Amino acid sequence: MHSFWYRANALLTFAVTILALMCAMASLSDNLNSPSPTAQIQILNINWFQKQPHGNDEVSLTINITADLQSLFTWNTKQVFVFIAAEYETRNNVFNQVSLWDAIIPTKEQAKFWVQTANKYRFVDQNIIFQYAGKQSSW
At 38, which helix (H) or strand (E)? Predict the structure, then answer.
């Protein structure tokens, strides 16, 4: 007759093997998903563009956002973070990136949306000009 510890070891080994098999199947099922989200962004209006006294440029935009992100949601997705960033280059910097709008999509039902809004965050280009001993230098 087998001892209690021998039977407990066999039961624990069987349980861990089944758990590992279930984890592998879950991982495979999520990796086989190929999402195909669509989004369209349109600038409707430039509300205002101003040069600030200390050299920065600031712009306010009205944007139209249409998106269908439902394919991103699987059994393993709790929420999706979405953002819009403006990328541009200037004389001083080769790459600039400014976040204009963001949102958290909590459910699959809310993942198909249309929004018309002004930029949520300030769109400022930092054209920095320093004055040192009467000389101007741009960085």
Answer: strand 38-51
81-135 pLDDT per residue, tens: 999 998 888 777 788 888 889 999 999 999 999 999 888 887 877 765 444 444 4
Q: Which residues pair with 58 in a beta bridge?
A: 50, 124
Helix (H) or strand (E) holding 66: strand 57-68
CA-based torsion, 78, 76, 35, 95: positive or negative = positive
Q: Which pairs count as long-range contacts for 72-76, CB under 8 Å and 24+ apart, including other chains? A: 72/35, 72/37, 72/111, 73/107, 73/108, 73/111, 74/30, 74/33, 75/29, 75/30, 76/26, 76/30
Contact 5, 31 (CB under 8 A): no
Contact yes or no for 130/137 (Cβ under 8 A): yes
What kind and span of H or E run contains 20?
helix 4-31
* 8 Å CB contact between 82 and 100: no
Is residue 37 within 8 Å of 59, Cβ to Cβ?
no
